[in-house]
Amino acid sequence: MAFCVNPASQGNFTFGQTVAGFLTSPGLPFVDILSEQRIACVFRKHGGLFGRTYTTAIVLWAFMSQVLRDGKEASCQSAVARISSYLTGRALGDVDPDTRDYCRARAKLSEDALHELTSGVANEAQRLIEPQHLWKGRHAKLVDGSTFMMPDTPRNQ
Fold first, then answer.
1. Distance (Å, rounded) from C-alpha 39 to C-alpha 127?
2. Tens digit of pLDDT for each residue in 108-144?
3. Predicted model pTM
4. What does the alpha-carbon distance between residue 78 and residue 69 come to, in Å, rounded to a whole number?
5. H-assigned helices in the chain
6. In terms of domain of life, where is this protein from (predicted)?
7. Range in 8-12, 70-74, 125-129, 133-137 with the lowest mean pLDDT
8. What CA–CA distances, in Å, run from 120 to 20, 112, 126, 130?
9. What are the structural domain ranges in the chain?
10. Measured in whole angstroms, how far is the alpha carbon of residue 90 from the centre of its chain?
């Protein structure tokens, strides 16, 4: 993962430090993390491949980059500018600065395909965790929106 902070080299690291690597990268930083082939394979199963300029991969990379940003950098206009930078940098042409085509393509991203892709990436990341990064040799699970009441009793310890 080209843009991830190496926790061993930083001592402590935060989610913000990891995200910063993506935010400071020009164009579409997820290109080096999530391959076009992997995206196409998953979206093909769900009938979600589209576009010549706004390919499924380009739209997904731009959308992921857009989600991590705030303010004007999170706008569709900024996402289209990042796509333009990516395409121009690879001599693949350019796109119209009008955001309608990007927004339409983004709306077509299949939720089922996104779920499968996310689950696959998460499972792969979990499989690649080195034993020294586990908690007492186990994978820690964080459940969003749930509360557990566990008094600090000898039985619960």
1. 20
2. 999 999 999 999 998 998 899 899 988 888 888 777 7
3. 0.75
4. 10
5. 7-10, 15-23, 36-45, 56-67, 76-89, 100-107, 111-127
6. Bacteria
7. 8-12
8. 24, 12, 10, 18
9. 27-121
10. 21
- Output the six-digit token pair for 70: 């705030």
Count of Cβ atoms closer than 10 Å to residue 86 Cβ: 20
∠ CA 109-110-116, rounded to 5°: 120
Angle at alpha carbon of residue 25, lines to 22 and 31, rounded to 5° = 70
Distance from C-alpha of 70 to C-alpha of 91, rounded to nearest angstrom: 29
Residue 135 phi, psi (nearest 5): -90, 110
% of the chain residues with pLDDT over 90: 39
For the chain, give the number of residues: 157
Tokens 């965790």 sit on residue = 129
Predicted confidence (pLDDT) at residue 105 exceeds the cutoff of 90:
yes
Distance CA 83, CA 53 (A): 10
- Count of H helices and E strands in the chain? 7, 0
Alpha-carbon span 9 to 14, nearest angstrom: 13
Amino acid identity, residue 156?
Answer: N
Provide the β-strand partners of residue 135: 138
Alpha carbon distance 65, 19 (integer Å): 10
